[in-house]
Amino acid sequence: MSHRVMAVAGLGSMGHGIALSLLSAGHTVYGADVNRDRVSRLVAAGGRDGTATVVSADIDTLVVVVLNAAQVEAVLFGAQGWVSRLKPGAVIIGSTTVAPDFARRMADQVEGAGLHYLDAPISGGAARAAEGRLSVMASGSPAAFAAAEPALAAIAETVHRLGDVAGTGSAMKAVNQLLAGVHIAAMGEALAFAVSQGLELGRVVKVISGSAGTSWMFENRAPHVVDGDYAPRSAVGIWPKDLGIVAEIAARAGLPVPMTETALARFRAAAEAGFGAEDDAAVTKIYAREGRLKLPGEP
Amino acid sequence: MSHRVMAVAGLGSMGHGIALSLLSAGHTVYGADVNRDRVSRLVAAGGRDGTATVVSADIDTLVVVVLNAAQVEAVLFGAQGWVSRLKPGAVIIGSTTVAPDFARRMADQVEGAGLHYLDAPISGGAARAAEGRLSVMASGSPAAFAAAEPALAAIAETVHRLGDVAGTGSAMKAVNQLLAGVHIAAMGEALAFAVSQGLELGRVVKVISGSAGTSWMFENRAPHVVDGDYAPRSAVGIWPKDLGIVAEIAARAGLPVPMTETALARFRAAAEAGFGAEDDAAVTKIYAREGRLKLPGEP
Prior knowledge:
Number of strands of chain A: 9
Oligomer: homodimer
Number of helices of chain A: 12
Largest interface: A-B, 66 and 66 residues
CATH class of the largest domain in chain A: Alpha Beta
Shape of chain A: globular
CATH architecture of the largest domain in chain A: 3-Layer(aba) Sandwich
């Protein structure tokens, strides 16, 4: 794989992990974030300062991993936005979870500026991001895929190639988030219900993990509740945004999504109760409060 | 394993499969059901007519697989109920999905009559029942477990031993049904959402099955929707009952269960729309109607 000059916009846990994977693959990696500490952390790890006033390199690949659609638009088209600073033919890999319509609009505008755009939401969490083992749900023009290839090879274990139109990747990610969010809320409801019936949670997790009631999220998150460990691997605060996107897209399509709406309300309640920065398994605490139940690790 | 004389009360798809497994293990098996055709079907397969007026054998094991708590009470304690007809020391294996309180009451009454009671809900479906590969979530006295051992060995691939008090098995089954029911409704919602976004369902099932949004139920049921095949492996009509039990238990414990309530409402809507006897994946059709979407196999 030839050496490339790349950049990552948004150096949260996912963006930092992606930058590390790109560095490990031998590429030059610039990092940008409004939080200077995050930029310093990347520079300490071998990256370069990607702040607009500093960068002067020929960057051919930009991975955008900021928090939401508004931030995507700002980093691409705002004052000192990346679109006006990338060299012709460069590719922008949009990995923020956004609505399919928004991804299509970004692709149109980016292509109009002579660049390529790959609609490429990611899943897998921060640990896998740092290991180059993400799952990418990607769609875009053949030229965008070709230009993005070196970056995808460095960050992804699996690339789902979902066609040549931007928006399909984001739609697939929305389907995944609908299920993942509902399953986490169901996990919390089921564990609280189990406690209310006097069941021992460790045993519940063992039995259910081998039964028809299991889910990937149950097996991944329920142990956090059993351990009373709410250090955020993925935070409660992600879900009002991601399920909000699903609900919004569904409403525009005229499709009622009551399971999504109910889970969304649970995560909003958890965030409002002060658990927004905790691991998303903390949605279980809302149930425990309402049912006056004691979870493991609580006084 | 020594030869035993056993009986199965309730010869629906699960009970018939259980009776076949007991026959395969070499036991004598009487079968009883209000539907005479079902009794004849078992007799044709090598079983015996377990109707009260016919039976005179020394039955030491009774597996109860009727539809609900009212039927359990009737077959055990009604006119010509089994409790008064079994020999002292016989075991009753209660495999109907019921509330934990009800299972405890049955155990008390059965033990008061000089018999053993094992609270032993099952999961796995009719095909696994006939293969002797069910999963059993069991609790009861050591004497009940010992007496039930030959039957459990014949019908179960996995026996979860959940302690010596009746009710724990039923509580664990309720946790499983909460999650399973919510996951099926979520599967329907996610597939309808995917259709609304123009995604190809076969591709969706493939991608999601390898992603964080997957569940056992998604992987098992979503292919039915892709194939447009709603022949009932497990029917919509099961869920208003099973999720109704969960909601009732939770209400008694003072725990709100909004995910369960939402899924319950979806299955009730599906049953009211005429899909009660179809495979439970048909909950997807409710979404398709509401969103005016076309599912595979529909005209």
